[in-house]
Specification:
346 residues; alpha/beta; Aldehyde Dehydrogenase, Chain A, domain 1; seven-stranded mixed β-sheet; five-stranded parallel β-sheet; 40% helix; CoA_reduct_LuxC; acyl-CoA dehydrogenase activity; NADP
Length: 346
């Protein structure tokens, strides 16, 4: 299995995901029957983001740069993958990385997202039949050489214990943030709205908190997101979360802003409840950078208008949910982890 074959197969898959395929559309439209959060619009967004990620230029750059310092023969291993199900196709990048590194993917699908991934991988196998022996589905991981597992902070402790004897990457809860400086335009706020509301805010790349200057005026922000995102409240599960959190704040007399579908509250926490956006203030840009760098291990990415001196990945407004192939979760290079596999390094 050559890297050139992998590049061609991934390129074909990207083209397929960007196409108007009837079977793919049927799966997109039926996903909500298995998971109420997976509306056709949100699932299609995930499919298109993956299709955009798998473009020929980026595939070439990603694979070539990974192998650039790895010319030695690489023995294939079996990598157990525990996939999350908070947003559609959330673990697909891990699968691609395992396959691109010449290894076997032993996949434990999430019960919340178990239909679309097998279909897309079946298409990939059509483009490259030799991959059939490199993709295994299982309800329980066994006989694996390494593990990449994604879960909550609670399940991560279980993963750390259960997989402690093999090389592993264990991912915990992270959130993304945005830094505003008062120069944002209406278009900036609309783009930021996607960073907040895509996938109903359930992803680790969704913005759950804003960092703003002191005495920041939120009126332009609320005015800009009103029309594009007001229909969020029509989703019953989102509306239930909005109503619940609103009632808690009202009963407790907690100060907050409310535009009818989003609650904005000043809070030191990084992870906000669904339908709530936290914010915090900073006196100076330098202090904002210092605070964010202290919190770096809790942050997935930072949405900014202008680059800051930060440890975490930075993206422009509207780009948090369209990562590149080399934008690794938690900043951990899974490709390098797999190519450097060593069972003695645990």
């Amino acid at each position: 299995m050559s890297t050139q074959q992998i590049k061609q197969a991934f390129t074909q898959l990207g083209h397929y995901l960007r196409s108007d395929d009837a079977q793919l559309n049927e799966l997109i439209n039926s996903a909500q029957g298995y998971n109420a959060w997976f509306t056709p619009e949100q699932v299609n967004h995930a499919v298109q983001a993956l299709g955009k990620m798998l473009n020929p230029s980026d595939i070439e750059q990603w694979i070539d740069s990974a192998y650039e310092t790895h010319q030695q023969e690489h023995q294939s291993i079996t990598v157990g993958l525990v996939l999350a199900g908070n947003i559609p196709l959330v673990g697909f990048h891990d699968i691609l990385t395992v396959l691109a590194s010449g290894n076997k993917a032993m996949i434990k699908l999430s019960s919340q997202d178990k239909h679309l991934t097998p279909h897309i991988l079946s298409r990939l196998i059509e483009y490259m039949p030799s991959l059939k022996d490199h993709i295994i589905y299982t309800d329980r991981l066994k006989e694996f050489d390494a593990v990449i597992a994604t879960g909550s902070n609670n399940t991560s402790r279980y993963f750390e214990y259960y997989f402690k004897k093999v090389p592993h990457i264990i991912r915990k809860n992270r959130n993304s943030v945005a830094v505003l400086d008062g120069t944002e335009s209406k278009e900036d706020f609309i783009a930021l709205g996607h960073d907040i509301f895509d996938y109903f805010g359930l992803g680790c790349r969704n913005v759950s908190k804003l960092f703003v200057p002191e005495a920041y005026n939120f009126v332009p922000f609320f005015e800009a997101i009103e029309e594009p995102f007001k229909n969020m409240i029509n989703h019953h599960k989102y509306a239930n979360n909005y109503d619940y959190n609103k009632s808690i704040y009202l009963v407790n007399g907690e100060k907050h802003l409310d535009n009818g579908f989003l609650l904005l509250k000043q809070d030191v926490s990084m992870s906000s409840p669904l339908a709530v956006l936290f914010y915090d203030t900073f006196p100076t840009k330098l202090q904002a950078e210092e605070k964010l760098n202290i919190l770096s291990e809790q942050i997935q990415c930072v949405v900014v208008k202008e680059k800051l001196d930060l440890q975490n990945q930075q993206v422009m407004f509207g780009d948090s949910q369209t990562p590149k192939l080399w934008d690794y979760a938690d900043g951990v290079n899974t490709f390098e982890f797999l190519l450097n596999y060593n069972p003695t390094l645990i």
